[in-house]
Amino acid sequence: MSELKIDTRLWSSKARNLSPYVPGEQPQHDNLCKLNTNENPFPPSPKVGEAIAKVLEQQASDLRLYPAPESDDLRSALAETYHLDTNQVFVGNGSDEVLALVFASFFLKERPILAPDISYSFYPVYAQTFGVDLVQIALEEDFSIDPDAYRQPCSGIIIANPNAPTGLLLSLADIRKLASEHTNAVIVIDEAYIDFAQIKEGDVDAQVSAVSLINEYDNILVTQTFSKSRSLAGLRVGMAFGNASLIEALTRMKNSFNSFPLDKLAQAGATASVLDADYFAQMREQVIDLRQSLTAELTALDYNVLPSHANFVFARPKGGNASAVASALREQGIIVRHFNKPRINEYLRITVGTAEQNQRLITALKALEADAEIATI
Amino acid sequence: MSELKIDTRLWSSKARNLSPYVPGEQPQHDNLCKLNTNENPFPPSPKVGEAIAKVLEQQASDLRLYPAPESDDLRSALAETYHLDTNQVFVGNGSDEVLALVFASFFLKERPILAPDISYSFYPVYAQTFGVDLVQIALEEDFSIDPDAYRQPCSGIIIANPNAPTGLLLSLADIRKLASEHTNAVIVIDEAYIDFAQIKEGDVDAQVSAVSLINEYDNILVTQTFSKSRSLAGLRVGMAFGNASLIEALTRMKNSFNSFPLDKLAQAGATASVLDADYFAQMREQVIDLRQSLTAELTALDYNVLPSHANFVFARPKGGNASAVASALREQGIIVRHFNKPRINEYLRITVGTAEQNQRLITALKALEADAEIATI
Q: At what positions is N6-(pyridoxal phosphate)lysine found (chains A, B) (predicted)?
């Protein structure tokens, strides 16, 4: 496409002014140690493949029929798992689609929305797509979020929790504060990584998710995804939990855009994933354990590793030569993510891999340490 | 949900003002003769299920990884089949999503878009969603489209061809005329049903698709779907063909909304469908044959059947008591679509079913004929 001269004559002004989101690269070749897009290193529950295979065996010809437009079975399974009513659950084609519909449904042109200056880089893209002003609120020096900094008129606040790429967790007390102080704004808590959070060692079931608040606050909307903790990035399923009136707005917006975003196979596979609670719990713990050992090994190499509640770590190599380290790793087939942005350009975001992948990374970093050129950049 | 009191306090004005699309119902019970949503009566190519099963068997753990964001293999297969460059092909989550992105990418608030007054009822919904004015141009008395009626300033024209629910076909000569007369507007030809069109008996390969025009007119964009002729409504795949600059706008809009709309399984299944050209050709012909016999039988029952180029017929019962006929059929488990709208409320839109389904319909209609109450309404 690079040689193609693009003619924008027939484009809408909206199309001309877009700066699309650039996802982390998805190279397809083998033997790559892919630690750049926060995918789960473990496969999804075997029940997922079984459920999809069952649809193919027993009802392959049903692929000719439209799927359930509101994904009823999947929403019921989620409602039961999260102790909610079905009308408090919305699902979409990945949490990216859910977030797009959130921007269209709740945020206003008249009052800005607020988001941390360092966060998921799709938020400013959505703001542009839907013509709302996004005011970026600076993270504190230690990359934490201070809810007091959000005391200004707005139509919404969107916070990734745990935040990306920092991995830091905002407390439920702080989320309550935001919701109480902005009763006329929708507080969106994007919990893509929440299942990897833990308040204290060994306590994976402590209350960290704002889902526990939605019966109390009618203005809290929580988004989650099957792409991380459920190992289903390839199936494109995300969800939102909130007051039934918020969910109704999302449903109407969806049905004004695309009535059937989840195909039959994705609905069946995602439902099977939700119902396999044991597998889910086991995988969460494994990733959390691997994160802890990765953190320890990076720390031993003098990396400054932020306390992560996600399936990645955000780490600064001694000397801050993150860009050079990323390039050197790439030459060895290890891909991590470097953001060339103010405040964070000395850090690397490294996805927690399998024990073997993490070891390959650590071995490579140790070899780099011996490389004078990198070490002194 | 009917008892729930919806509180719109936190909704955007856009969300408050939506009138969402209402798809044809998808009842789940058995033994229903479902002739209401223009699904294909035949299953998809067996290669589709095989390709998906292969992904599950050989790469189930790859579901943990994000899919190819631009669906490269699928777009290549489509490009090859339609003799285009890959950069002239766009794919999305059903042609509904593709159409939504079309509205956002090309249609302007400053100049209206034009569409037939009787057409796919999602178009006015999209117009509302994206804040563009839609001017409805009346079909002729015989439900045909007169391109001369579109001679007015606009930023775009959208025409379903064959049109729904009429089934009538607009000629390529008329499409050329529209494109030539509106060089500053994008002419969208929504070819959801084009694969069932034929110019003359037995000549299914005659040029009826505007895909043959896109190298000649930089302002023609053609949308198609896997939901009808490829029997994959359950898989959610649609596509657009056009000049590379138009496709680039759609790609950017997609990547400002949702980077990964097609999951891994849908990409694999759709690609297998495209590659099985023999099955596709055979299914098209079968549906066309069944349409012809259904048309003959309805005509024999004194129905006025419009000359259909789709996988449905639009037919007026003698006496015009369409609503009563639809209700009476429903009592027998046969569902057809009735639109309670001006000009077409005396018609039924009936999906072409299997020979068995069509026979069940005809038998029921013959019984109704004997029912004096229905016959004289």
A: 228
Complete DSSP assignment for A196-234: G--SSTT-TTSS--GGGGTTT-TTEEEEEESSSTTS-TT
| Residue B123: CA count within 13 A, CB half-sphere | 26
User: Residue A26 and residue A34: Cα distance in Å, rounded?
Assistant: 9
Q: B170, B205 in Cβ contact below 8 A?
A: no
> In 3-state terms, what secondary structure has residue A130?
coil
What amino acid occupies position B135? V
Q: How close does chain A come to B322, measured CA to CA in Å?
A: 25
SS3 call for B331: helix
- Sole residue written with tokens 């409504």: B233
Residues of chain A with CATH 3.90.1150.10: 25-44+278-376
CA distance linking residue B360 with residue A298, whole number of Å: 71
Instruction: Kindly state the tokens that stand for A190.
Output: 């994007």
Q: Which candidate in B17, B59, B64 is best for mutational testing of the A interface (most A CBs within 10 A)?
A: B64
Cis link prior to A307 (omega < 30° from 0)? no
- Cβ-proximal residues to A263 (8 Å cutoff; 6+ apart), any chain: A67, B234, B235, B236, B263, B265, B266
Q: Tell the CATH topology of A46-275.
A: Aspartate Aminotransferase; domain 2 (3.40.640)
Report the candidate in B238, B42, B354 with the shortest Cα–Cα distance to residue A61. Answer: B42
Q: Which CATH number fits domain B25-44+278-376: 1.20.1090.10, 3.40.50.12780, 3.90.1150.10, 3.90.950.20?
A: 3.90.1150.10
Identify all chain B residues contacting A265, using CB atoms and an 8 Å cutoff. Answer: 52, 234-235, 263, 265-266
Strands (E), B191-286: 220-225, 238-242
B305 closest CA partner among B352, B375, B340 = B352
Q: CATH 3.40.640.10 residue ranges in chain A?
A: 46-275
The residues, any chain, with a CB within 8 Å of residue B212's CB and separated by 6 or more, are B172
ipTM, two decimals = 0.94
State the residue for tokens 């070899």.
A367
B354, two tokens: 């299997």
Residue (of B117, B178, B118) closest to B152 by Cα position: B178
Determine the Cα angle at B57 with ends B55 and B60, to 5°: 65
Measured between alpha carbons, how far is B85 from B273 in angstroms, rounded to an integer? Answer: 19
CA-based nearest residue in chain B for residue A129: B256
**Cβ neighbours of residue A71 closer than 8 Å, sequence gap 6 or more:** A91, A262, A267
Nearest chain B residue (CA) to A13: B108
Map residue A67 onto helix, strand or coil. coil
Place of tokens 């770590």: A313
Nearest CB to B60 within list A49, A248, A262: A49
> What are the chain B neighbours of A94 within 8 Å (beta carbons)?
258, 260
Q: How distant, in Å, are the alpha carbons of A104, A130, A286, B130, B169 from that of A126?
A: 9, 6, 34, 14, 39
* Tens digit of pLDDT at every position of chain A (377 positions): 446 789 999 999 889 999 999 887 777 677 889 999 999 999 999 999 999 999 998 877 889 999 999 999 999 999 999 999 999 999 999 999 999 999 999 998 899 999 999 999 999 999 999 999 999 999 999 999 999 999 999 999 999 999 999 999 999 999 999 999 999 999 999 999 999 998 665 555 568 999 999 999 999 999 999 999 999 999 999 999 999 999 999 999 999 999 999 999 999 999 999 999 999 999 999 999 999 999 999 999 999 999 999 999 999 999 999 999 999 999 999 999 999 999 999 999 999 999 999 999 999 999 998 775 555 54
Q: Cβ distance A106 to A221 under 8 Å?
A: yes
Backbone angles phi, psi at B123, to 5 degrees: -60, -50
Q: How far apart are CA A249 and CA A269, in angstroms?
A: 26
**What is the residue whose two structure tokens read 């209401």?**
B36
